[in-house]
Amino acid sequence: MSIKYLDGIRLYRVLSAGLQRVLEREDYLNKINVFPVPDADTGTNMAYTLSEIKNDIQQNVHSNIADMSDLIADSALDGARGNAGSILAQFLVGLSEGLSNYAKVTTQQFADAVKIGKQYAYQALLNPVEGTILTVISDWSDTLQRLSNKYSDFVEILEHALKTAEKSVKDTPKKLKVLAKAGVVDAGGQGFVDLLNGIQEFIREGKIRKIKIPRILKPKIKEIEFNEKYRYCTECVISEENINRIKLKDQLMALGDSLIIAGSKHKAKVHIHTDKPKTVFEICRSFGKVFKDKADDMLQQQKDAHRQHKRTAIVVDSTADLPESILEEKNIHVVPVRLNFGDKHYIDKVTLSSEEFWNELQNNPVHPKTSQPTPGDFRRQYQFLATHYESAISIHLPAKTSGTMQYAITASKALTNFPTTVIDSNNVSIGTGLIAIRAAEAIEANKSSDEIINDINNAIKNTKIYILLNTLEYAVRGGRVSKSKKRIADLLHVSPILSIGTDGTIITDGEIFGRKNLYDRFIKYVEKKIPPNSQYRIGIAHGNCEQRARNFEKHFINKVGKENVFFSQIGPGLGTHAGTNAMGIAVQIQDN
Length: 592
What we know:
Elements lengths: L5 E2 H17 L1 H6 L10 H16 L7 H15 L2 H18 L4 E2 L1 H17 L9 H15 L6 H17 L1 H4 L1 H6 L4 H19 L26 E8 L5 H8 L3 E8 L3 E8 L2 H9 L3 E9 H9 L5 E6 L6 H7 L1 E4 L2 E4 L2 E4 L6 H10 L5 E3 L3 H11 L5 E6 L7 H11 L5 E5 L5 H15 L4 H13 L1 E6 L4 H5 L5 H10 L1 E7 L5 E8 L4 H11 L7 E7 L3 H15 L4 E5 L2 H7 L4 E7 L3
Parallel strand pairs: 7-8, 7-12, 12-13, 17-18
Antiparallel strand pairs: 1-2, 3-5, 3-6, 4-5, 9-10, 9-11, 14-15, 14-19, 15-16, 17-19
Helix pairs in contact: 1-3, 1-4, 1-11, 3-4, 3-5, 4-5, 5-6, 6-7, 7-8, 7-11, 8-11, 17-18, 19-20
C-alpha cells in the first residue's frame, strides 16, 4: 500500500490509532515516570490529552487538513494535562500552523509542518531539557526533513522516522542523569513513540485494532526520592484576543518551575509546578478569561505511585470536611468542589483555604456560589487511580442536594476497565467524613469488596449529622431561606437544627428557642438522639468558631475517648449556607 497524501480525514484516523496505543500503554508509562517529578502520571496525562482531542473532534471531522489540524490544536490546548501533555499540545499547535495553507499535504509539506511543531514545542518551555519528549520530537522531525526529498510515500518515510524515534527514546538516559539513575527511559518520550507506533500499525493494517501489551512490562525502577520543591501541578487555559505570552511568562516564572506556556496569542495553556496556585490563577486572569483550571497534588500522586497501599482507593469530594492529617493517615483522595465570589473563582482547599473562605464570607459583599466538581475532574482522578489501584469507592453528597453524585457516576462509566462504586452518603460535612473513615478502615482490614460495601452501608445507616445555625443570614443570602422566615426566627429567637432526611433532603430536625446557653443546649439535644448504652463516634465541624468547637471536642473526648472524636472546620459546601458560628455534630453508632 502506498500513501501519497495526507488530508484531514486521514490525520484524524492516524491520531485515533495513535491514541489507542497510548491508552494501552498508560499504566506502563506511569510506572516509568520519574522526570520532571516521579508522580507517576505521564501516561494518564498523555492519554487524557489525546482522549479529550478525540472526544471534541469526532463529530466534526474535516477532509481539509488545515481545518482538521486547527480543530485538533484547539482541542489539545483545552484538554492538555501535565508536562508531557502540554508539550504535545504545543507541538500540535505548531503543526497546525505549518498545515494552515493546505487542503492535503505531501511528505515534504508534512515534514516542514512537523519542523514548525518542533520549534513551537521548544519555545513553550522556559528551560527546555534534552533527554525528554522534546528530544524525541526533534530527532523524529529531523529524520522527516532529511528523507522528505527521497520518499514521497508516507508509509516509507514514517517507517524510517519511527526507527529514529525509537532509538532516540532509548538514548534518553544518556542525556538525563535522573533517567539513568532510575534505569528507565523518559516516559513522555516513550509516550510519543507509542503514539507513532499506533499510527504506523494503522497505516500497515488499515484499521485500528486493540494491541494487547504483555503484562511482563513491569519496569524495574530504582526508588526515586520525591524532592520536588513545589507541591501542585497547576494548569489553566487563558482565552483573550491578544495574550502577551512573554509578559505572562515573566510574571509566572518566579512562582515555580516546569513552566510551559503553550498556544497562540488568542488561547494559551499554562502549566507550572508551584506552591501558589491561587496566585498563578490570579495572574492568568489579568491576561484574559481563565477556564479548565486545576491543581493536582503531586505529593499525593507520588505516594500513591511508590508507597505500599491497599487495592481499593477511597474518593470523596471536598465537602467531606476532614482535616488533612486524617486524609493523609487514611489515604483518602479528594476531588475539590469549586466556588465563586462574583468573578473570583476558587478551587476548594487548593486555591482557597477554609480560613480564607470564612474571611471572604464575612467581608465580601458578594455571596459565594458553589459548584460540584465536573465529570472531567472525577475522570482525571479515577484515571490516575486506575494505574495504581484495582478499584475505587467514591462517596459523595446526597443526590437530592447536589449534582456531584451524577457527575461521579458519569465519570466512572467512562472507565470501563476500572471498577468504581459511587455511593450516596446521605450525609454532609463531617458526617460524610466519618463514613469515609469507616470505609478506609474496612479496606485496611483487608475485607472483601462485598464486606467493604456492607460496612459502608451500615455506616451510612448509623451516621447522622446535626447542624446548629447561629443565624439564618447566610441561608437567606444563598436563597435557601426567605427573608420573612428569618424575621420570624429572629423575632422568636429560634435557632434551627438541620439534618439530612432518609430521602437525602435537608430537613429541620428541631429548634432551640432563646439564645441563653445555646451551644450547651445543642450538645444536650444531640446526646438525647444517641441510643442509651451505645458505642459511638463523634465528628465536630465548626463555622469559624474554633474555641467553642474545642470545648465540644473536650466534652465528647470525656465521653468516648480521644480516638473516637474527629475535629474539623466546615468548608464552603456547607459554610456558604450555614454561615459563621454554625456548628455541626455527626454521630456514628458503632456496630457491635
